[in-house]
């Protein structure tokens, strides 16, 4: 039963509960019109203590496409709600006006604190470098929809594997499904943290391989999940310049990839995927954004318990 | 007849007109669904020349819960509408697009000026330290709903009585109902202004008492209206530190209060009410926020004249 | 067929296509209720990379009055969508969530670039000093509605004719209708650019006259289109002070005007039209703002192809 629940950590839901969300997303995709009014009379609060236009748009579009309405703020300046006020008081006030809240906050744990004082469901839309569970739902729905399974996949994760929260969450989430294998492609400076390897991968007997070169492994992948390699992560400019090209996906590298391989990216992309790749039918990153809206529709409907109306 | 009227000063409405708003609020609370579409096709403009997320949320939620829609801006930066343009021109343009407007402005009198040039109802959502009439409506609806009367009450007002516009408006408004008595609890630095005592209280033969100590009078109160004591109001830090604890409500002080006493606060609260008090059934300040939304629903419906549809 | 088209340049539509938009606007004005739900289930994105509250309000009100919904951002600060991301990627993401987009951008050409990568219609809501096609549609609908024709008119354009993009677009647009004549009233510093005279007016054999004095020609005009004369356009303060009064419209000058002359202004007005003129029945500039909303309703409905439902 997901009605009335919060979503703070990508692992808050069991595999079965995630399947419920994905199943509903499938139905929405199949017949969107049927769900066009299920949230009539419901209000979503979008509490963005730091700007994230893409994520905010996705949530707001999701709620509006379910027939609900939205109030909110989109950056710190407008959040007078927070001036000297505790997160607890803010969410209790917001809960007087709305039926469900989405919170983005620069501080880790803020959405968790909110959920502890809230009568309405709270969704974490990103808290610092910590969690971003609806990105994980997006990634999984995209894979499930396009590959027709969440098991038996070889998943390449490429770029900044040290700081990327989407990558860590994706590994955790996909490790719960059987027989997936990870290929972790990054420069030494940006390798996956040890705790992910120990606690998630080794403990669960998940097969993985670390390497530095995308080109050498791209042929083995069912999924290539690209992330940004940021200049500021490197101690010196030379290292950055020497390394960055290895982690840029272009048509040349795509030639060596499996014809069924999917390229994913959480967006925004800067230059880690060449524009020329956009026309390759294996480029799924914009379609992925669309799945992001659908999975949020399903999530909101589930947490509000309105999907039973259909 | 409230249709087409403005609300700029809390005293713009007669006691009878306020009763009409409260009666409608009662009906909305009783059967919210009945009013879910009365504002279909109507547009509210929220013109916030200074941020006030809480007040804006309350108005926007009110309009959306009536089936209307909202456009607006939420802080000075986005109000290009105002660049070099007069308030008169702004409201005349806004009136081309919308059916009713809410204005928050740092300058006293700005909403009044707007109302003088507007074909659509204008609601003052706070103009500097001047007026905030919907806070007063909120306070009165809360008292009326929970105490079942607006007369024969002993009302304690505690904290900063000098600068608090909500306190001044509440005194004015409650002085119009028979047999209310005020206990004004504040340090010398933050006593109620003389004009309030002379023009409002003495002139209307309203009983009142000034004192410095909350604990000594809390047992006599039907209502305790708390406000913030701001550090910056004191000439020196020592005075602030010496005095602040006397004006912090905690469970210890609540023990001496009447079992039926209501604690109200316009929010946001900083530290003038201890968090431990939140669990006391006499703490009404979050419920008060909810009444704030309902009274705004009633107000909007009345000014648009759509309540007659029900 | 306007369905699925973009509107970037005021001249993107033929005279016939503009007539389709105006005809629909007429119908909407006649029976707004009939169109109250034609955009149900549709989402408009308002992408304002620089603030323009008036234009944003007009578009948002238009969409909401058609029964559609709106998501968006209203100033650069909140547009994290754009952080390091190309306009192409932004619009492709936005197109995942919405059905039509409006873009305001400080850089000339940005909406054009967006339209080239977009699956959904893109409307230019102003790009730098370049184009603002819906202002031109507004101006033409106002003239057509009030004068019952777009031909055989003597149009005075007064003030800053050098930098005013609305003036340039209005000249281009009105030059496509037969027998219109322009009187171009400005100080030497702010004369119409040569290319407008050569390429638009002379090439199309459109009659025009340049002069410096409003009072001497006001009696000849069917339409007087006022624009702001900005202090910062002048090399020295003396020139500004010497000239500014000649370009301020007041009741004294209105006495010499034709009793049927229309005064238009794109707003915001600063001091180029005295407030006393507002009460003159020939002052149409606020009514013009209202036509602006109606023409945007018609435009959105046409680009989405939903007007055929009525």
From TrEMBL, chains A, B, C:
<dbReference type="InterPro" id="IPR006130">
    <property type="entry name" value="Asp/Orn_carbamoylTrfase"/>
</dbReference>
<feature type="binding site">
    <location>
        <position position="54"/>
    </location>
    <ligand>
        <name>carbamoyl phosphate</name>
    </ligand>
</feature>
<dbReference type="InterPro" id="IPR002082">
    <property type="entry name" value="Asp_carbamoyltransf"/>
</dbReference>
<keyword id="KW-0808">Transferase</keyword>
<comment type="similarity">
    <text>Belongs to the aspartate/ornithine carbamoyltransferase superfamily. ATCase family.</text>
</comment>
<comment type="pathway">
    <text>Pyrimidine metabolism; UMP biosynthesis via de novo pathway; (S)-dihydroorotate from bicarbonate: step 2/3.</text>
</comment>
<dbReference type="InterPro" id="IPR036901">
    <property type="entry name" value="Asp/Orn_carbamoylTrfase_sf"/>
</dbReference>
<comment type="function">
    <text>Catalyzes the condensation of carbamoyl phosphate and aspartate to form carbamoyl aspartate and inorganic phosphate, the committed step in the de novo pyrimidine nucleotide biosynthesis pathway.</text>
</comment>
<feature type="binding site">
    <location>
        <position position="267"/>
    </location>
    <ligand>
        <name>carbamoyl phosphate</name>
    </ligand>
</feature>
<feature type="binding site">
    <location>
        <position position="165"/>
    </location>
    <ligand>
        <name>L-aspartate</name>
    </ligand>
</feature>
<dbReference type="InterPro" id="IPR006132">
    <property type="entry name" value="Asp/Orn_carbamoyltranf_P-bd"/>
</dbReference>
<dbReference type="GO" id="GO:0006520">
    <property type="term" value="P:amino acid metabolic process"/>
</dbReference>
<dbReference type="GO" id="GO:0044205">
    <property type="term" value="P:'de novo' UMP biosynthetic process"/>
</dbReference>
<dbReference type="GO" id="GO:0006207">
    <property type="term" value="P:'de novo' pyrimidine nucleobase biosynthetic process"/>
</dbReference>
<keyword id="KW-0665">Pyrimidine biosynthesis</keyword>
<dbReference type="Pfam" id="PF02729">
    <property type="entry name" value="OTCace_N"/>
</dbReference>
<feature type="binding site">
    <location>
        <position position="135"/>
    </location>
    <ligand>
        <name>carbamoyl phosphate</name>
    </ligand>
</feature>
<feature type="binding site">
    <location>
        <position position="132"/>
    </location>
    <ligand>
        <name>carbamoyl phosphate</name>
    </ligand>
</feature>
<feature type="binding site">
    <location>
        <position position="268"/>
    </location>
    <ligand>
        <name>carbamoyl phosphate</name>
    </ligand>
</feature>
<comment type="subunit">
    <text>Heterododecamer (2C3:3R2) of six catalytic PyrB chains organized as two trimers (C3), and six regulatory PyrI chains organized as three dimers (R2).</text>
</comment>
<protein>
    <recommendedName>
        <fullName>Aspartate carbamoyltransferase</fullName>
        <ecNumber>2.1.3.2</ecNumber>
    </recommendedName>
</protein>
<feature type="binding site">
    <location>
        <position position="104"/>
    </location>
    <ligand>
        <name>carbamoyl phosphate</name>
    </ligand>
</feature>
<feature type="binding site">
    <location>
        <position position="83"/>
    </location>
    <ligand>
        <name>L-aspartate</name>
    </ligand>
</feature>
<feature type="binding site">
    <location>
        <position position="55"/>
    </location>
    <ligand>
        <name>carbamoyl phosphate</name>
    </ligand>
</feature>
<feature type="domain" description="Aspartate/ornithine carbamoyltransferase Asp/Orn-binding">
    <location>
        <begin position="152"/>
        <end position="301"/>
    </location>
</feature>
<dbReference type="GO" id="GO:0004070">
    <property type="term" value="F:aspartate carbamoyltransferase activity"/>
</dbReference>
<dbReference type="Pfam" id="PF00185">
    <property type="entry name" value="OTCace"/>
</dbReference>
<feature type="binding site">
    <location>
        <position position="228"/>
    </location>
    <ligand>
        <name>L-aspartate</name>
    </ligand>
</feature>
<dbReference type="GO" id="GO:0016597">
    <property type="term" value="F:amino acid binding"/>
</dbReference>
<dbReference type="InterPro" id="IPR006131">
    <property type="entry name" value="Asp_carbamoyltransf_Asp/Orn-bd"/>
</dbReference>
<feature type="domain" description="Aspartate/ornithine carbamoyltransferase carbamoyl-P binding">
    <location>
        <begin position="5"/>
        <end position="144"/>
    </location>
</feature>
């Amino acid at each position: 039963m997901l009605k009335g629940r919060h979503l703070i950590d990508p692992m808050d839901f069991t595999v079965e509960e995630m399947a419920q969300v994905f199943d509903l997303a499938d139905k929405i995709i199949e017949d969107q019109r049927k769900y066009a009014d299920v949230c009539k009379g419901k209000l979503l609060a979008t509490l963005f203590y730091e700007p994230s236009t893409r994520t905010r748009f996705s949530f707001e579009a999701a709620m509006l496409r379910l027939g609900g309405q939205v109030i909110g703020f989109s950056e710190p300046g407008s959040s007078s709600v927070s001036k000297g006020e505790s997160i607890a008081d803010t969410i209790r006030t917001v809960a007087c006006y709305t039926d469900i809240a989405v919170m983005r906050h620069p501080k880790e744990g803020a959405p968790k604190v909110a959920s502890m004082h809230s009568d309405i469901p709270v969704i974490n839309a990103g808290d610092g470098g910590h969690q971003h569970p609806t990105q994980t739902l997006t990634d999984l729905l995209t894979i499930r929809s396009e590959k027709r399974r969440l098991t038996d996949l070889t998943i390449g994760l490429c770029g900044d594997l040290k700081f990327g929260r989407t990558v860590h969450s994706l590994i955790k989430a996909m490790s719960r499904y059987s027989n997936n294998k990870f290929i972790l492609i990054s420069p030494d400076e940006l390798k996956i943290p040890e705790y992910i390897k120990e606690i998630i991968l080794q403990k669960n007997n998940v097969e993985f391989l670390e390497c530095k070169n995308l080109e050498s492994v791209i042929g083995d992948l069912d999924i290539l999940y690209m992330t940004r390699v940021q200049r500021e992560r490197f101690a010196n400019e030379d290292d950055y310049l020497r390394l960055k090209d290895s982690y840029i996906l272009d048509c040349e590298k795509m030639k060596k990839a499996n014809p069924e391989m999917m390229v994913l990216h959480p967006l925004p992309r800067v230059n880690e995927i060449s524009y020329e790749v956009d026309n390759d039918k294996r480029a799924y990153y914009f379609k992925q954004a669309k799945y992001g809206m659908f999975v949020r529709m399903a999530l909101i409907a589930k947490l509000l318990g309105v999907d039973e109306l259909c």
